Amino acid sequence: MKHGTTTAYHSHGCRCDICRQFIRRHHKRYMLDRSRGIKRLVDAQPIRDHVQMLLDSGMSFRAIVLTAGWNSRHSLVTVLGNKKVTPSTLARVLAVQPISDQRGDRYVDATGTRRRLQALARLGWSARAIAKRLGRMDPNTYVLIRAGRTTTVRGRTVDDVRRLYDELWDQQGPSERTRRWAAEQRYALPMEWDDDEIDDPTAKPRRFVKKGRGVQLEDVEFLLGMGETMQAIAHRLGVSRDAIDQILHRAQAS
Fold first, then answer.
1. CA distance linking residue 147 with residue 185, whole number of Å
2. How far is CA 186 from the centre of its chain?
3. For an engineered disulfide with 182, which of 112, 121, 138, 244 has Cβ 3.0 to 4.6 Å away?
């Protein structure tokens, strides 16, 4: 309990000298403001409307709390539940603007982040390996994002995954199990995404399609470089395993 507050005096019944002196000053200010026509409390609805606008813009509740100058989300929760607030509290919350969120807490669309995590999985980068390299969140968080279980992610997560993707898009990961699983899920490879489109929810990956007799050596070499097995390459390109072996044999003999 903090002495010298209305909570200490009224809720906790403290009658120490500090609390008594505070209440006397508080009552004196109240009577003075009343005589001057100054309202001590105003309608709290504008605060609720403003907070909803901030949330709709993608700002997190925590970011609103911190930007408004509070340390605990409980402070804002209490304010939102009140019918009346002080003018200073109203001004504090209304001063918060979406652009004020510089902490990376702003939520944005998860499409690009999900696709990058899926593409890295195709290379053998598990959620655990990604979490270890980024050193931020529990691996399960990346699992949920990769699976499409969440539609929005924090701005800092978007930046983290983008930087890691730019670093690892052409490198094989340590987990063969993750690579096989991601192939079964038909996640797109990094090279199947255009960098300018990977964040666009309406964009589609440039899939390798079954070509039958039209299989090219460069297709086989590319898929091999991405960690695909010979059997998986044959299935993907629509030919037999023997056909893939013959293509590689002819390339080596030439």
1. 10
2. 24
3. 121
**In 3-state terms, what secondary structure has residue 108?**
strand
Same-domain status, 90 and 112: no
Per the structure, the complete domain to which residue 148 belongs is given by 107-192
Lookup result for tokens 């529990």: 138
- Residue among 161, 150, 166 at smallest CA distance from 107: 150
- Give pLDDT tens digits along the chain (254 positions): 678 877 777 778 888 888 888 888 877 776 776 677 666 688 999 999 999 998 888 777 877 887 888 877 888 998 999 998 888 889 989 988 876 555 556 677 899 999 999 999 998 999 999 999 988 778 898 999 999 998 888 888 888 999 999 999 888 899 989 988 998 898 988 878 888 889 988 998 876 544 445 567 777 777 777 677 787 777 667 677 777 887 787 777 76
Give the number of domains in the chain: 3
The phi and psi torsions of 114 (rounded to 5 degrees) equal: -60, -45
Strand, helix or coil at 125?
A: coil
Residue type, 6: T
Among candidate residues 71, 100, 129, the one where a domain is terminated: 100
Q: Which residue, chain included where needed, has tokens 């993750």?
A: 178
* Paired residues of 107 in beta bridges: 154
List the structure tokens of 49.
């409307």
> Distance of alpha carbon 10 from its chain centroid, rounded?
42
What value, to the nearest 5°, has the Cα angle with vertex 173 and ends 172 and 177?
Answer: 115
Helix (H, G, I), strand (E, B) or coil at 155: helix
Query: Kindly report the CA angle at 49 between 46 and 52, in degrees rounded to 5?
Result: 150
How far apart are alpha carbons 60 and 124 in whole angstroms? Answer: 33
